[in-house]
Design brief:
By secondary structure, the protein is an alpha/beta fold. The chain has 9 helices and 9 strands. The longest helix is centred in the last third of the chain and has 17 residues. Helix 7 packs parallel to helix 8. Strands 1, 2, 3, 4, 5, 6, 7, 8 and 9 form a 9-stranded parallel sheet that branches.
């Protein structure tokens, strides 16, 4: 799609749970491993992996997109929803965009050339007012507008892309699966409205591929197959790794992510965040009409 590259790899991270709170006792019981409870100690936060991801990507000369979530309080919902466990899980895992630590990392990412985008809350996929409010809040915290994002849990309705376009987003990266990986939605981006709004299908999520902690070679084989398929078809490939997966309790994921990027670069891929690729795609399209040009890295 881009001149001079074999294919494109978009790197993304959904910031669902930067703090291991409720999950500490849950995993302690589930795994029968009390060491998870150490995350409840003051100053201990194993799921805060922003600096580690930035260092890893910086060492490889690439950037990615981080999508930040402003989940709604359960008390903003109908009392009928208070009996739904899912809403309590989302409520109790919330974080504040205007917390000092979150604000600091938002600006560190932005200043360093990473993309900051919107992770629409659980129900916002069909609630344009909530989606607009969340975008406004994130932009207030960041200090400028955001380009695109992805819906929480990949929730999507027929109207979701229209809502995204209407609130001023330029792209969406929701289309995909949390349990399957592959190019099920084609090899290129989609333009559902035949305009500049772009959809980046999700090719692979961290939890969809074999667990690299159990069998690293099986996990790498899945990634390698996708990279080969991408190169053969001049594809746009989009990968999602949640920041918590870089923690030591999820062995193999950091190594697999690094190897994915290194191998993509070796294969001649362009690697970066979707917002930048959307710009380059638009520029490349204009260049074919003689109105602009593209310059590779």
């Amino acid at each position: 799609m881009l001149p001079g590259y074999e294919f494109e790899l978009c790197l993304t991270h959904d910031v669902d749970r930067p703090y291991k709170r409720l999950q500490a006792p849950y995993y302690a019981l589930k795994d029968r491993d009390p060491s998870h409870l150490s995350a409840l100690a003051p100053g201990v936060n194993p799921w805060w992996q922003f600096e580690e991801i930035m260092d890893l990507e910086e060492s490889l000369g690439v950037r990615s997109a981080f999508y930040f979530l402003q989940e709604e309080s359960i008390f903003q919902k109908s009392p009928d929803d208070w009996l739904t466990p899912r809403y309590w899980i989302e409520h109790l895992g919330r974080y504040d965009l205007f917390d000092t630590a979150i604000l600091d990392v938002l600006h560190d990412l932005d200043d360093g050339g990473w993309e900051v985008g919107l992770h629409g809350s659980y129900d916002s996929y069909d609630d344009p007012e909530a989606l607009r409010n969340q975008k406004t809040a994130l932009e207030a915290a960041l200090g400028h507008r955001v380009r695109g994002g992805r819906q929480h849990h990949l929730n999507r309705a027929d109207s979701t892309w229209e809502h995204h376009r209407d609130i001023g987003l330029e792209y969406d990266a929701t289309l995909g699966s949390s349990s399957e990986y592959g190019f099920d939605h084609g090899y290129g981006v989609k333009r559902p409205f035949d305009d500049d709004f772009v959809v980046f299908p999700l090719t692979m999520m961290d939890i969809a591929v074999p667990d690299p902690g159990d069998d690293f070679e099986a996990a790498w084989e899945a990634c390698e197959d996708l990279l080969d398929e991408a190169a053969e078809n001049d594809a746009v490939m989009t990968a999602l790794w949640h920041p918590r997966m870089f923690a030591d309790e999820f062995p193999g994921h950091r190594r697999l992510y690094r190897r994915l990027i290194e191998s993509a670069i070796e294969r001649g891929a362009w690697v970066g965040p979707p917002g930048e690729l959307a710009d380059r795609i638009g520029t490349a399209s204009k260049s074919r009409t003689g109105t602009a040009s593209v310059h590779g890295r």
